[in-house]
Amino acid sequence: MEKIKSTILDIDYITHKNKPVIRLFAKEINNDKQREIIALDESFEPYIYILPSNDSKDIEKDLEEDFDIINLEWVIKKDFQIEKKILKAIFKHPQDVAKHRDSIRKLDSVKDIKEADIPFYRRYLIDNDIIPMDEVEFSGEFINSYETIKSKDKSLKILKLNKAPQKLQNKYQKFKILSFDLEVRNPNGMPNSSKDPIIMIGLASNFGFEKVISTKNKINSSNNSFIETVEDEKTMIERFVYYLKKHNVDIIVGYNSDNFDFPYIKERAKINNVELDLGVDGSGIKFIRRGYANAAAIKGLIHVDLYLVMRRYMALDRYTLERVYLELFGEEKIDVPGDRIWEFWDSDSDELDKLFDYSLDDVVSTIKIAEQILPLNLELTRIVGQPLFDLSRMATGQQAEWYLVKEAYKDNEVVPNKPAGIDLSNRDDNEGGYVKEPEVGLHENLVQFDFRSLYPSIIISKNISPDVLVLDDVENLSNYYVSPEHSYKFMKKPKGFIPSVIGNVLNERSKIKKQMRETDDETQKKSLDVQQQALKRLANTMYGIYGFSRFRWYSFECAQAITAWGREYIKDSMKKAEEYGFKTIYADTDGFYVKFDSN
DNA sequence: GTGAACCGGGG
DNA sequence: GTGTACGGTTCAC
Are strands A302-305 and A251-254 parallel, antiparallel or unpaired? Predict the structure, then answer.
């Protein structure tokens, strides 16, 4: 039996002999061998939870019929803190869940079904407490081949697991990141991948490698050492594939690469008859439907589209690469207008030379942005426990939700379903924080007050959580926190699910801040700082999950209660300050400015 | 005034 | 893939 320490980059499942097989794409990041590993787990089975109705005496008999359920088991799970006897139904294949869940839900003996919409690979990570981008220990046997893996790469190891991977101590890991960018010759409007050829492929990395592959070279041969001139577009694409494999890249980043670069190069590769077998298993680029947009996915090579990521981290009017770069680094990029690139290319003059510099500048800027933002995303990946590929495409609310799904599993709580068919049209938007418009003028001697993490603190101190919210009349009000304005009642005991999760997040953050103060190692300090930021973000997002109607823990009452208490706190504090002779100049949500009024 | 349609990023 | 974005603005009537 082999025992191998390795880092899980990605996960999916395949079907083998009609059964699902989990595939973990891993690499020996902290080991000189740097081998790529596909670990296979054939033992994991899809399941859902079934809540029996009041008339449930025939439930087991009902479920025996035609639902491809291979096993039924009574388990005890908490549903909003209340322990219940629930049926766990195990299926042969994840697709059987999709096929039968609606008919099962409609049975008279069934009240509701739960956790029937959690993707199989996410279920695997949650149930086995496996953290992507962290090191694990695999135990299993190497096998020579596996039907569905067609890689020609001899160094690839395929490992058949005989138990789930074991978590190891979290270690700092340096990933190899490469950015890429295409320039194309498009004289007629926007690029058309069936007609307009790729003229340059730019590559830059966090390990010293920089290159522009092109069919031309600079006219002036100075400063052109980064250029590799090849004979045709076909060779250009082949070299792109070659460098990605040669450098054993872990993460590939682009800017709008889900929508432009990857679809474009895939089409050009097809036209030029080049095999784009970038996947560890020998597969190509797949486009995964995410709503109306596609995400470009490569097996075992994590693709992060920074455009999507940056849109979430900055509030800008536009999110062009130029704009984002300027905002982050205060420097202008080399600019060539998109509609003139073909003219620069055709000019065979100084303008062509400028186009080469522009191409390099694009990928260098992209890698700089990646180095700035990926550490935070790697930390969030570890906290949330879902793959970086997925996490980088999630809204912050979704990140918080998957974190809660993971925590619910640990607490033996059943995960609430996504709200269905809530009519929001006759419901007012929740009133936000208190804002006092600033008094016009130049003010001196201002004093600033602000509440530290106002909303997370309120959630914890008032135990605001849907599982302890009571809407019926109660006998003894002193057992409840009662919200201002709407008088919602939250039980003082037990602690609500979400307040306890936020409490854990904030405690973890305090621990990390303490470690930060105690260490003199600058690299470690930086890494800890990123971790505490990630935890702060997560805590602050928990308020949002109450307010958006498509989230599992949606609760309009909780959202209202939080902001109502927030307004009360800030107004009370302003009033106190005014009693001491201060005058409020400006206030917004969690803080205000006052000045001493000498009159 | 209202709901449908479009747009972002990329060249 | 145990799935189907999103929020803001402009257009069309």
Answer: parallel
CA A316 – C1' C12 distance (Å)?
30
pTM value is: 0.94
Fold (topology level) of A418-596 = Palm domain of DNA polymerase (3.90.1600)
Instruction: Using a pLDDT cut of 70, give the percent of chain A over it.
Output: 97
Cβ(A384)–Cβ(A399) below 8 Å: yes
| Nearest nucleotide from residue A321 CA, by C1' atom | B9
Provide the positions of strand B that have an atom within 7 A of a protein CB: 8-11
pLDDT higher at A216 or A432: A216
Cα dist. A592→A300, A348, A451, A536, A570 in Å?
Answer: 49, 60, 9, 21, 8
Q: The tokens 């599992």 sit on which residue?
A: A552
Letter string b/e over residues A510-543, b meaning 16 or more CB atoms within 10 A of that residue's CB: eebbeebeeeeeeeeeebbbbbbbbbbbbbbbbb
A320 to each of A191, A326, A327, A358, A394, how far by Cα in Å?
A: 17, 10, 11, 15, 20
Whether the CB of A289 is less than 7 Å away from nucleic strand C comes out as: yes
**CB under 7 Å from strand B:** A 181-184, 186, 189-191, 255-256, 259-260, 292, 307, 318-322, 337-339, 341, 362
Give yes or no for CB of A81 within 7 Å of strand C.
Answer: no
C-alpha neighbours within 13 Å on the C-beta side of residue A334: 16
A177-384 CATH choice from 3.90.870.10, 3.40.50.150, 3.30.420.10, 3.90.550.10? 3.30.420.10
CA proximity to A433, closest of A597, A574, A579, A576: A574
Judge whether A265 and A244 are in contact, CB under 8 Å: no
| CA A49 – CA A43 distance, rounded (Å) | 19
pLDDT reported for residue A442:
83
